[in-house]
Amino acid sequence: MQKALKNIETSFDQRKVVLLSFCHxxxxxxxxxxxxxxxxxIEKFGLSLTQAGFLSSVMQIPALMNPYIGKLAxxxxxxxxxxxxxxxxxxxxxxxxxxxxxxxxLILLFFTGISVSLFHVPAPVLVYKVSGERTGRGMSFYMxxxxxxxxxxxxxxxxxxSLLGLEGYYPVMLVGILASVVxxxxxxxxxxxxxxxxxxxxRKTCVEMKALLLPLAGIVFVRGFMHACLxxxxxxxxxxxxxxxxxxxxxxxxxxxxxxxxxxxxxGLSDRFGRKPILVFCLAVAPISLLCFSAVSGWLQLxxxxxxxxxxxxxxxxxxxxxxxYSVDGSSAANGVFMMISFLSRSAVVVLVGxxxxxxxxxxxxxxxxxxxxxxxxxxxxxxxxxREGDKL
Length: 393
Hints:
By secondary structure, the chain is mainly alpha-helical. The chain has a single domain (about 15-380), classed as MFS general substrate transporter like domains (Growth Hormone, Chain: A, Up-down Bundle), CATH 1.20.1250.20. About 80% of the residues lie in helices and about 0% in strands. It is built from 20 helices and no strands. It has helices at about 1-5, 15-30, 35-45, 50-60, 65-75, 80-95, 100-120, 125-130, 135-165, 175-185, 200-210, 210-230, 235-240, 245-275, 275-295, 300-315, 315-325, 330-360, 360-375, 375-380. Helix 2 (about 15-30) packs antiparallel against helix 8, helix 8 (about 125-130) crosses helix 9 and helix 9 crosses helix 17.
């Protein structure tokens, strides 16, 4: 035991954490294009809200492979997963506007989903390895890159469409391709493998972590209703009420920007006060603020949206830290299982939310999602978490 502890690197490698966060930012700028583009795609192809929700679901389907990607990442080079991700996501997401049919849209989004999985499964594990004892802080840095991307992404794509048109914005893919070239030089000194001597069994991982994964699965599912209505349908919700395209894009950016602030603060707080208490607090505030958002209007609504973004989006780094600390071995496999649960829950929920919105309208749907979100509070109390020191690079 003492020998194992001597091998643990307790320092926080800020340079590597920031590099991973920057890569997360570039990648997720492109993956955030779908929601602000939905009003344009709905108009172009005459889609129902159910069909529009299914677009997001198709992007999540490759998440079924996440545990196997995690198992592969433990035994092979993961640096190229990180390097290629910006280009692999940028190309299909930049071609949505020129897609000739709904079927081609589905194909492009499916390939985007593959790239998303190849990046998101191993990246948090690398963050965990280079964060020393401050796992929460490391996950906060990493998730800040993603949330900042989703805050700026809607503005970037709305600006590109305004200047170049829906069918003419495809040159924006060049930035993602260039980012992959830059990442090649920046990540040459990153670890080749996460855990080269591990041969984790996915079934064994699930059994060992069921005390944590089962409650987390429930939390992710009910949280997914709140996340789906806001991330997928917030621009459409605002556009329907105001008719202002820019306001619709700005509202989503406000929500995501609030999430950036929450992530930066909450991850560090969970290092100090514990993962479970912080998670319970956030899961209590998020649905209450969403219900308030549905009840108010005007600038007050945007103010409440800030609170919703802070509380709802800040739970992800806490849960990622819990998964990494709980896993005994094969951290990528453990993260793959959790990411599969997370992505599939969200994809199924988006279709369901779209279906409900078709039947009862978006305003009522937002209220329903807030009520469902309240179920996450008792689930959080059932979590069997343990904050431990794992193997560090």
